[in-house]
Amino acid sequence: MKEKIESLRESISSAIDEAVTGRGLYELKVKFQTELKGIMSGMKDLPKEERPTFGKVVNEFKQAMEELFEARAVVVRKMELEAQYEKERVDITMPGKSYKAGALHPITLVKNELIDIFAGMGFKVFEGPEIETDYYNFTALNTPKDHPARDMQDTFYLADNLLLRTQTSAGQIRVMEKNAPPIKILSPGRVFRSDDDATHSPMFHQMEGLVVDKGITLCDLQGMLAEFARKMFTSSTKVRLRPSYFPFTEPSVEVDLSCSECGGKGCRLCKGTGWIEVLGAGMVNRRVLENCGVDPDEYTGFAFGMGIERIAMLKYGVNNIKTLFENDTRFLEQFED
Ligand code: PHE
């Protein structure tokens, strides 16, 4: 019996030392337990007085082997983990794949900011078509076919009566035709003119504003523009109105803002004047109101139109309008937030 135990001890303990997987070790343990059972079943054949000694020997043997199994299990588990780590190893020094996320274009940023500012004053957005009829773009805006003001806004004609709109002012007519006052709309959009130099592009964006109600005056226009200037630029930005001419407003004004670069002292940006022209505006011409079926004796209104590129150029210090359209990512990346 003793020899049987000793030979089992030898064979199992060397097999334990060779086990390299948890599974192998488990199978070995099952085998050991079966063998041990066999040995124990031999106990009944022993004389009674030898049984306690034998039982003690078997127990010690069982415990010793179990300790070996446990110790090997720790080693095998470690080996297995190491193998797994090696397999799943990630080289964290390798440069990652970078995906460029898109960002809003500065023109869109400025457009959104303008909408935010004016929406805060109660304006609603209306978007008119980019292809307009001669009537909406010019005639209804008190600019008939022979009007000299048409020269300043020469554009791309698609047919005799169809053109790429030169101004978002066309939207004024569309809104007034369909809605009775009070009206308070903002109309952003693309416009087109045959113009092309450092500050003009054949395609650019405008933001139109129109307010029509009883008792609207030029003071309302000035006050609202002052609020816009403070919000868009700095809290100390001032507004100045200069007389001007547009066929669809009377009186008409050109609106200047105090130069945000020098604070009005005079610098290169404002060409030494301390002021920067940003938009055209005026009281809606009574003929325009009449064209839309609005009674000019009952209602008055003001309108303004600004170039979004111009505001963006001033706000971000861009000196050539083309920079805004080249889509050079080195330029555009500067606006990612
Ligand atoms: N539509 C004019 C332009 O494009 C700007 C303007 C809008 C002027 C509204 C007065 C009122 O130059």
Q: How many extended strands?
A: 9
The name of the CATH superfamily of the largest domain reads Bira Bifunctional Protein, Domain 2
How many angstroms does the end-to-end distance come to? 83 Å
Characterize the main sheet: 7 strands, mixed
Uncertain residue segments: none
Named at the architecture level, the CATH assignment of the largest domain is 2-Layer Sandwich
**Separate helix tally:** 10
Please tell me the total number of domains. Answer: 2
Query: What bound compounds does this protein have?
Result: phenylalanine
Q: Helicity level, as a percent range?
A: 40-55%
* Structural Rg: 43 Å
Q: Which fold does the CATH topology of the largest domain refer to?
A: BirA Bifunctional Protein, domain 2
Q: How is the quaternary structure best described?
A: single chain
Work out the strand percent: 15-25%
What letter string, H or E per element, gives the SSE order?
A: HHHHEEHEHEEHEEEHEHH
**Structural class of the helix and strand makeup?**
alpha+beta
General form: rod-shaped
The first-level CATH class name of the largest domain: Alpha Beta
What is the residue-mean pLDDT, rounded to a whole number?
Answer: 92
